[in-house]
Amino acid sequence: MALDMKQRHKLKNFIRALEKVRGRHTELVSVYVPKGYDMNKIINHLMQEQGTAENIKDKTTRTHVIDSLERMIRHLRLYKKTPENGLAAFAGDASGKEGKPDIQVWSLEPSEPINTRLYRCDQTFVIDILKDMMEIKEIFGLIVVDRREGNVGYLKGTMVQEAVKLTSGVPGKTRAGGQCLHLSTIVSMADGQYLSIVEIQKGDEVLSYDFDNKKFISSKVKKVWRTIKDKVYKIFVGEEHLICSADHLVFLDDGSTLPAENLEAGMMIMNGRGLSKPITKIESEEKQIELIDIEVENKNFVAEGIVVHNSAQRFARLREEAAKEFFKRVADAAQKEFLGKKNLKGILLGGPGPTKEIFLESGYLNNELKLKVITVQDLSYTGEFGLRELVEKSRDVLLKEAITEEREIVEKFFKELSKDSKLVAYGKKEVEKALEMSAIDTILISESLDPEYSEDIEEKAEAAGSEVKIISMDTAEGAQLKDLGGIAAFLRYPLE
Questions:
Q1: CB 318 within 8 A of CB 171
Q2: Are 222 and 200 a contacting pair, CB within 8 Å?
Q3: Does this model's pTM top 0.85?
Q4: Ramachandran assignment for 358, one of left (phi > 0), alpha (psi -120 to 50 degrees), beta (any other)
Q5: How many Cβ atoms are within 10 Å of 27's Cβ, its own excluded?
Q6: Helix runs in 288-371, H state only
Q7: Residue 179, φ and ψ in degrees, nearest 5
Q8: CA separation for the pair 130, 112 (Å, rounded)
Q9: Which residue of 15, 230, 270, 381 could cross-link 386, Cys pair, CB 3.0 to 4.6 Å?
Q10: Residue 81 and residue 303: Cα distance in Å, rounded?
């Protein structure tokens, strides 16, 4: 079970107190009693260690260890049985002054079970086990996605943390004619003639390949256009070669397509006779050049003896294929981060536009993770802003989580304060006065306050029947409370 904010604050202060104590040598005693373990066995073990400590050569260290063990044994005998979740106890000299020892015992009945039995003497107390309890165990997964960017992260308590950032190679929307051929390109016509691409007009019949029936057919030209590019590729197939833009699609012999910039020597492509031929080499040249292309009804034609895709739907297909590949990468990242995490309470999904719904409903996300998606939110941003916006817009879902509870109670306080309400107070002087009069209903204490002062206020508030809320520094609201002096309260009645 996860610690609530008050339990975390108490544990944090306890750990801080232990961290301040330093031994001269290995003289500080740490004892962890596991849940359900016999306390008498622990006491008997410590009595044996007292005998062993008599052999320590350094007199001061020997005295401190023996005295600490004695104080520890006396403390443990106060327990009739082991506490429900076990016990963490520590003993040692807290004075820090040579020749003036102050042997003290600190103990904690934790809010979650201790599973480790431990006894150790060292220069510092063993507190790693307690620090592990501070880690927030329950988390929410966060996924923000659109066609340009994907972000995978976590919500841990009040902290929003980005784990993975991905960017896509999805091209932007571009008008037709963005991917073209050299002006000298020769095109195979349906009647067996060969024409330069610059001579072809709308309505002409060109040679095209029917992939369903595996034969060449006649196909009508629907459009012709020109454009300027800064780089071209020269693809050699035997003695034939094609000069085209980087994104011009060429058919491989299996019917799939690749843009010229992704082709490699040795790949098998389809030539103008329906045969598979290997690419012998590829050259590229960066220069500004005018190119031309055509759109045909059957979506492909033969240029320089090579079957190439026509331009009309090329960009749409490129975008779609790139988007699918990107969504798969985002899903893979989410799977790597989230799958198998037992403390994952749910997944929040969001993004601008309809992309997030496409991502969720098109089978990209592992089914186990898909079942954990508890909300889908429309966002204005991606990136870290998007992750935070996703959490903010999921407040109804996260109603019982610390980040929302904190924000709502602090926002409620500032709302009352803005109305000049007499039922709120802030700052040490005003809150302490209200506390003395038992006028506080709920007190808000910032984690930024001095631990000793905070603990004293907590004890007084609980004695007065006031509810205590610890406010972290992980939110903007928490920072606002710190600026008001770190302490505020809702009152039961106005102060005179």
A1: yes
A2: no
A3: no
A4: alpha
A5: 27
A6: 314-338, 355-361, 367-370
A7: -130, 115
A8: 10
A9: 381
A10: 89
CB 238 within 8 Å of CB 265: no
Q: Which residues pair with 3 in a beta bridge?
A: none
The alpha carbon of 371 is separated from its chain's Cα centroid by a whole number of angstroms, namely: 19
Residue with tokens 């429309």: 378
Strands (E), 204-256: 205-210, 215-237, 240-245, 249-251
Q: Measure the CA–CA gap between 6 and 10, rounded to whole angstroms.
A: 6
List strand residue ranges (DSSP E) for 80-204, in order: 87-93, 103-108, 118-122, 139-145, 149-156, 159-167, 181-182, 186-188, 194-196
Work out the number of other CB atoms within 10 angstroms of the CB of residue 452: 11
Q: Encoding tokens for residue 38?
A: 């016999």
Structure tokens at 311: 């331009």
Q: Are 458 and 445 in contact (CB under 8 A)?
A: yes
Structure tokens at 255: 């019917």
Are 185 and 301 in contact, with CB atoms under 8 Å apart? no
**Distance between CA atoms of 31 and 44, rounded to whole angstroms?**
13
Instruction: Tell me if 427 sits within 8 A of 482, measured CB to CB.
Output: no
Distance of CA 255 to the CA centre of its chain: 40
The tokens for 219 are 């196909």
Domains of the chain (ranges; CATH) run 5-134 (3.30.960.10), 143-170+320-393 (3.30.420.60), 181-311 (2.170.16.10), 402-491 (3.30.1330.30)
CA torsion, ordered 368, 374, 376, 377, to nearest 10 deg: -140
> Is residue 17 left, alpha or beta, with left meaning phi > 0 and alpha meaning psi from -120 to 50?
alpha
pLDDT tens for the chain, 496 residues long, are: 556 667 777 888 899 889 999 988 889 999 999 999 999 999 999 999 999 999 989 898 999 999 999 999 999 999 989 999 999 999 999 987 777 889 999 999 998 889 889 999 999 999 999 988 876 667 899 999 998 899 999 998 778 899 999 987 555 444 344 458 899 999 999 999 999 999 999 999 999 988 888 899 999 999 888 888 888 999 999 878 999 988 788 888 877 778 888 889 999 988 878 788 899 999 999 988 989 988 888 888 999 988 887 654 555 555 677 788 899 999 999 999 999 888 888 999 999 988 899 999 999 999 999 999 999 999 998 999 999 999 999 987 776 555 667 788 899 999 999 998 899 999 999 999 999 999 999 999 998 888 889 888 988 988 888 988 888 876 778 888 999 999 999 999 998 7
CB 116 within 8 A of CB 127: no
Q: Which two tokens stand for residue 201?
A: 């007009």
Which letter does DSSP use for residue 42 in this model? Answer: H
Q: How many angstroms separate the CA atoms of 217 and 25, rounded?
A: 91
Q: By the 8 A CB rule, do 131 and 8 touch?
A: no
